[in-house]
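hi! just following up on the protien thing from before. the input was this:
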Amino acid sequence: MLTYTYIGAHQFQLLDKPLPTLRDPKDAIVRVTLSSICTSDLHIKHGSVPRAVPGITVGHEMVGVVERTGSAVTTLKPGDRVTVNVETFCGGCFFCRRGYVNNCTDPDGGWALGCRIDGGQAEYVRVPHADQGLNRIPDSVSDEQALFVGDILATGFWATRISEITPEDTVLIIGAGPTGLCTLLCAQLKTPEHIIVCERSPERIRFVQAHYPEVIVTTPEHCAETVARYSAHGGADVVIEVAGGKETFRLAWECARPNAIVTVVALYDEPQILPLPDMYGKNLIFKTGGVDGCDCEEILRLIQAGQIDTTPLITHRYPLNRIEEAYRVFENKQDGVIKIAITPAESVRP
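and the predicted 3d structure came back as:
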């Protein structure tokens, strides 16, 4: 089968690999019908994910159809359309029982797909702990509607949940990339008084203004004054940092009011410094880390009910055999790209 494979730092390659097989009774084999490229895939490509294993098929954002299941899988059957969770988790360890599935202690726990084991930028994928990691897509929900459920939409949902947003809050979201937009959609479910999106890219600013006209948009240069205009308490009540830059990390805590919650969703290419002397007296609460992606079933219900729609984020489509071109467009932010849907390979391969 055709796969997009991590060879080493700065090198991915289209390779043919054998079809995956069931290795454990809890496994399922999924035929990938739609996948996508995530910024985390670029972090692997740039060599900033040390745990990524050379030789693995990349990709952790996908939907598909169950082809085979292990003998211990109880909630799924061949033919089911499913979302695939970015994380694999056992469901029974100390962390899983508390909903902290990103820290699952199973050898395949946490972010494994497309990082430590073969992922979904391929024709088929093996999913460990399938009962936890796969969710059946309702018949009325399309593959495109469900594509981001297991990763960036789960991240946005988790980020807004742990940020404890209330209807009285002013919420600042830094970054209007794909994850930032999913965070925006989930923040809207909490109905805060104001949502401010800070973004540098003129194309992404226009995208937000066109699709979410009720949202306040600003640039980094004017972010602090914009936040002050819409807050009576010296800053935003909640800041969610999704951009992942040195300047945006500082902007996040600078624009927060005293005793605010600052939720850091971004994955950085380099370490960030927490300048505690500069922050003294703000008494901020920082929440950080990888998504605990255990809300996929609820997210699918919200999509089915028409309360979340991420389909406008899909701006480009490429077949698997042209995925190198798709990466070039996505990595260089060309042609107004937000997200790319990777469809099954065309019959003629390169």
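Residues 154-288 form a domain with the Rossmann fold fold (CATH 3.40.50.720).
The two ends are 13 Å apart (CA to CA).
cheers
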